Fold this protein.
Amino acid sequence: MSVNASAAGSLIWNTDDCTGFQAQPILPNVTNSRVCGLQTLNSTVLQRCCSGPIETYACWSYCATDSPTTQFTSCVNETAPTLRNDIFCLSNTSSTIRQKVSSSAGHRVAKLPTTTFVLLVGCIFFAFFLGPTNAHIIRSVDDSLTKRATDSNCTFQENRRFVQLGATEQVSPSFSGFAGVGTPITTDITRNNRTINSTSAADGKYDAFFDVLSKQFGRQFPAMSSLEIFYEFVVPRERSVSVGWTPFHWCVNGTATGCENSLGSGGAMEILACGPAFVTDNNSTQPQESATDENAIIQGNLGAIVSRSCSESMQVLVADSISTD
């Protein structure tokens, strides 16, 4: 399967193919220690740099370490066959899983989509990020919440299941200078709703339909979810960067029938239903046990939104001006 990680909705998470998709996912961490890793199947490059055993997760190798990010990166690059600047470290990982939505839950209002282009006075920063740049506008779940529906006759006939990219949001301030950076990340819980046909389905009227899917596929479809984590990476030289978060969505399409109360029609309806992917979903077709766990960690990609410096931007503008004269 070819992978295109630049478009929202791209198929991803093929554990048999590590080419074509660069990512920094949430790594399994049962010891709750600080771990650092990189995308490689050659785990030997980490051997002399780790204070704990080397672990593997799909296309990534990682280990526990107390070394600062820059020191760990230098250590890996002493033995790596090619220069690696994609090393990252994670700690203090948790998720907020909100199974149902109610008017007393104290929800936050959804933010407008974050763009990857930032305009500063006197300087235009051109931002590049490996991930989708478009975003779904998710209405506030505080408005017009609907009473939970029941649908005893609702059934779903599966056609296909897969994991795809969600919408990217900027989740940190900007950093600059060649240095190791650590920043706490908390993603917006209103931007990772479960969806039906690419539209937010956090409202309680959809609970009965997602209950059907939960029983059928053995996994949870929480109304809303978010990630809390401490993320460390190395800022490239002469760059200004911020952190972007792109959630992974576990999706299934097929035909729903008899779901009048929750979907508004008792007839056959073509449905694409998605909920958050979880760290245990290292295979897009088979749900894992902890995908039903209230303490499950949602999965996605953390990565640097890299901006050109002011001087580089001015050089580009001058070059463009000269080329058009």
User: Anything to note?
Assistant: Residues 35-324 form one domain.
